[in-house]
Amino acid sequence: MDFAYLREEAKQGCMGQKLMAMVVEGANGRTYLAPTMEIEAIAESAKPNWKPETLLPDKALGFRVQEYGLLRWADLFTPRQLVASTTFSDLMAETREKIRQEAIAAGRPNEDKLLRDGGIGAMAYAEAVSIYLAFSIDKYLMYGNSLVPWDSKERRTIDAFQPTSAVNGLGLHRG
Fold first, then answer.
1. Pairwise CA distance, residues 166 & 173, whole Å
2. 86 strand-pairing partners
3. Is 104 helix (H, G, I), strand (E, B) or coil?
4. Among 83, 89, 119, 122, which residue's Cβ finds the most Cβ atoms within 10 Å?
5. Which tens digit of pLDDT belongs to each residue from 115-152?
6. How far is CA 145 from CA 8, 12, 109, 138, in A?
7. How many CB atoms sit inside 10 A of residue 100's CB?
8. DSSP 170
């Protein structure tokens, strides 16, 4: 099959995804198991309540997934990955408030002045810690999307948006 055929089939919605394996940690390290029908049903049952519907750029250097019908940011994630990422994001407000409360309990001034406004109290502290937590969500999104390639030599995933020395089949240029 040539790329033109594959791309056209993808644009027509004739391509999908399939859960290929489960990775489990055990006493002897990682084990790779074929998913059971029950596990597949659980994975397929995820229903995100929000999706990033923003369009991907029409043309981007090294990023040509649009040629496969992936036009929106949401198209880069499985429903299960969208549920996980939105859950992490939704928990940020709760976490920030918990950090603020604990900072007050630890003796930080209880002021509502934000970090960008020169705040040094509990709110500014909670905001600063939340920024670092947001970095971890960002990192998760780099590895927790449907385009992440598997490095069989390293036995791990590779950041889908990080240039490396190869080109994968979906048009993410690596190099």
1. 7
2. none
3. helix
4. 122
5. 899 999 999 999 999 999 999 998 888 888 888 887 87
6. 22, 21, 40, 11
7. 22
8. T
Q: Which two tokens stand for residue 76?
A: 């880069």
DSSP codes joined into one string, 113-158: --GGGT--SHHHHHHHHHHHHHHHHHHHHHHSSTTPPEETTTTEE-
Look at residues 54, 45, 130, 124 and name the one whose alpha carbon lies nearest to residue 91.
130
| 3-class secondary-structure state, position 6 | helix
**Residue 97: half-sphere exposure toward Cβ, Cα within 13 Å:** 4
H or E element that contains 7: helix 3-11
Token pair 């036995």 is found at 155
pTM of the model: 0.77
Rounded CA gap, 16 and 26, in Å?
A: 31
- Of the candidates 95, 125, 131, which has an alpha carbon nearest to the alpha carbon of residue 110? 125
CA distance 59 to 65: 10
CA 27, 31, 34, 35 dihedral sign is positive
- Assess contact for 164 and 158: CB atoms under 8 A: yes
CB-side neighbour CA atoms (13 Å) of 70: 21
Q: What angle do CA 10, 14, 16 make, to 5 degrees?
A: 85
Convert 20-41 into a string of H (helix), E (strand) and C (coil).
Answer: CCEEEEECCEEEEECCCHHHHH
